[in-house]
Design a protein that fits this description.
The structure holds two protein chains of two kinds. By secondary structure, chain A is mostly helical. Chain A is built from twelve helices and no strands. Chain A is globular. Chain B is built from seven helices and ten strands. Chain B has a four-stranded mixed sheet with strand order 8-1-10-9. In chain B, strands 2-3 form a two-stranded antiparallel sheet. The chains are: A mainly alpha, B alpha+beta. The interface between A and B is large, with 126 and 118 residues.
């Protein structure tokens, strides 16, 4: 089986820049025969995408949810731990820390699994690159996990007990970053939809993470005061999420072609489901005063809504990257470089 | 000075694809399978992990001064352009790479180190031109290296070397820029008023601050599948980070607010 290079190694040496590329199947690229009239694809190059497909699989939006929730759990838990007079909030701080720790470990697994070369995951820590949200996030995730582990260990080891609260506090601070940096990450791409809503994405993701953290913690066996905390926290978070979501929708509609993946298709369906889930869970949480079952439903729907939000954004972005027309329209309407540099690129001799 | 690049003059490209072949052969890239696309003579369709030069063929029912075809009352033109990694002065792939695999070489080109890349795929989404891609078989991201190995041996990149019409011109960047501007003036004097430069410097393309591999085009960029106003995503990231900071402070305040209000009510 040839490696599609047709080089006889007894005659030639494979030292080219691309010689190391692993080839498992020769036909890696498939093409459909273009069968349209030139007028139908006018304004584009045979309607081919102008950007590359995003390579991330479903593990990544699941990570946005798991990592973000872990971050917000740590933040809420740290706040409770710092104000924990007479151990009133012991249960909340314990469950929050365990949830955050589990979430951070699961996050690492999800991220490493999605890499093209998972065995090289540690190379993420070769450099610290502030221009890259992914680099910043990787360092945050690592420190987050380290601080949480230290805090948990300190809670079990009398010798380290002085470190428990400070480590938890630092984890809480990092948790804020964990909840929102993924929004910055996808906003910092060339994908038309994500780039257009880059200001709203971090707010949506932080609110969504806080909502799911509050929702999941409300399912834990807590006492009355702690229940109040999770209820108030998730109520506000869900309200902010709904507001941020509608702001995001409005921003995407600045260029209708860019908004399309969020209004139709897989992305559109998931987005609508997520809005409904969050709204219903908000109502259920408020009704949880009177009905225990409503509180549980609110918790489950809150988490489901948060996960669905991330899946919706991910799917919509995937579709947006394949739409050359949306990209071109967005840039022609001044939302390319012109938005930040003041002048657009030269596109003709005039 | 010291910075090398490409000036691709698409008005003298003849669509022979010698550049595609030379690139594949020199870099020992695997073939991508034989395909028939029906897109004029373009069966490559796009750049990718294993295709670092791609010749675009644009057939348009529009007249183009230098091409008198005698077809459709001369309302027909056939344009060719050899697409390549632009080696942007502000490169989206480089600024997003978390492993430090993508670097700026001493020649000003953008180079992916394949022994470091772990295939996170971020560069694929941050490239405003859709150039770099991750090969699923291999796991890593690949793109044109501007023949870094040849440059280090003081040789011309394979594509420029093989181009029979010198449509792909290689050399010092400032010399190429001067040559290109003179060429545009010559074309305008000859009546080819459609000619213009794409990405020649920061003023011409502020979003990328100029391309080390720039083009002379005769139709709007979209016709060649090039974005009309590309921007390195990092230029827009400030607002994003700022909003994240505000939201983070807000959420922290809400967290403490919830905790303190519950504590007070517990004591009451």
């Amino acid at each position: 089986m040839s490696d599609a290079r047709y080089v006889d190694t007894s005659l030639g040496v494979l030292t080219g820049e691309g010689a190391e590329q692993r080839v498992e199947s020769e036909e890696s690229v498939t093409r459909n025969v273009w069968q349209r009239e030139p007028e139908q694809t006018a304004g584009t190059y045979y309607d081919l995408p102008a950007l590359k497909k995003t390579v991330w699989k479903v593990e990544i939006p699941i990570y946005y949810f798991v990592g973000g929730t872990a971050g917000s759990m740590a933040m809420l838990g740290a706040a409770a731990a710092l104000c924990n007079r007479e151990g009133a909030f012991n249960r909340l701080t314990t469950y929050a820390r365990l949830g955050a720790l589990g979430g951070s470990m699961m996050s690492a697994v999800l991220l490493i699994h999605d890499l093209g070369r998972p065995e090289r995951f540690i190379y993420m820590l070769r450099v610290f690159r502030p221009t890259s949200p992914m680099s910043v996030g990787t360092w945050m995730l690592s420190s987050f996990g380290a601080c949480l582990s230290l805090s948990w260990l300190a809670s079990k080891t009398p010798l380290l007990s002085a470190v428990e609260k400070p480590a938890y506090a630092v984890a809480g601070l990092l948790g804020l970053g964990m909840s929102g940096y993924t929004g910055v990450l996808i906003g910092n791409t060339a994908v038309p939809l994500w780039q257009q809503v880059r200001r709203e994405l971090p707010v949506l993701f932080i609110a969504s993470s806080a909502a799911s953290a509050g929702s999941l913690l409300s399912l834990a066996p807590l006492d009355e005061a702690e229940d109040k905390i999770t209820e108030r926290f998730s109520t506000v978070a869900k309200t902010v999420e709904l507001t941020a979501g509608s702001k995001l929708e409005r921003r995407s509609r600045q260029v209708p072609a860019v908004a399309r993946p969020l209004r139709s298709g897989t992305g559109g369906t998931l987005w609508k489901i997520s809005r409904v889930c969050v709204l219903v869970s908000l109502a259920a949480t408020l009704a949880g005063h009177k009905w225990k079952a409503a509180k549980k439903a609110g918790g489950i729907l809150g988490a489901a809504g948060s996960l669905t939000t991330r899946l919706a954004i991910h799917e919509a972005g995937k579709e947006s990257a394949q739409d050359a027309r949306a990209l071109f329209t967005q840039q022609r309407e001044g939302l390319g470089a012109k938005e930040v540099t003041g002048s657009a690129a030269v596109t003709s001799s005039r | 000075m010291g910075h090398k690049g490409f000036f691709t003059d698409t008005t003298i490209c003849i669509g022979c694809k010698a550049c595609e072949v030379a690139c594949k052969q020199w870099n020992q890239l695997p073939d991508d399978g034989l395909a028939f696309t029906g897109m004029s003579y373009d069966n490559t369709a796009a750049l990718g992990a294993s295709t670092w030069r791609h010749v675009a063929f644009v057939e348009a029912p529009a007249s183009f001064t230098p091409q008198m075809t005698g077809l459709m009352g001369d309302g027909f033109s056939w344009l060719f352009s050899s697409d390549v990694c632009k080696h942007c002065v502000r490169a989206g792939c480089l600024e997003g790479c978390p492993t430090g695999s993508i670097i700026r070489t001493e020649f000003g080109s953008v180079y992916v180190q394949p022994d470091i890349c772990n295939g996170c795929g971020y560069c694929v989404s941050t490239c405003p031109f859709g150039v770099i891609d991750r090969r699923e078989d291999d796991g890593r991201a690949w793109k044109c290296t501007l023949c870094y190995d040849r440059l280090k041996a003081d040789m011309t990149p394979a594509c420029a070397k093989s181009c029979p019409t010198e449509s792909i011109q290689f050399g010092d960047l400032d010399e190429l820029q001067n040559r290109a501007r003179a060429r545009v003036q010559t074309l305008h004097d000859r009546g080819v008023s459609e000619a213009y430069l794409y990405g020649v410097d920061a003023e011409n393309q502020p979003g990328t601050e100029g391309l080390n591999a720039f083009f002379l085009l005769v139709d709007k960029p979209e016709a060649y599948n090039l974005p009309p106003d590309p921007v390195v995503p990092t230029k827009k990231a400030g607002e994003s980070w700022r909003n994240m900071a505000f939201a983070a402070v807000g959420m922290a305040a809400i967290a403490f607010g919830s905790v303190l209000s519950a504590r007070r009510s517990r004591q009451a």
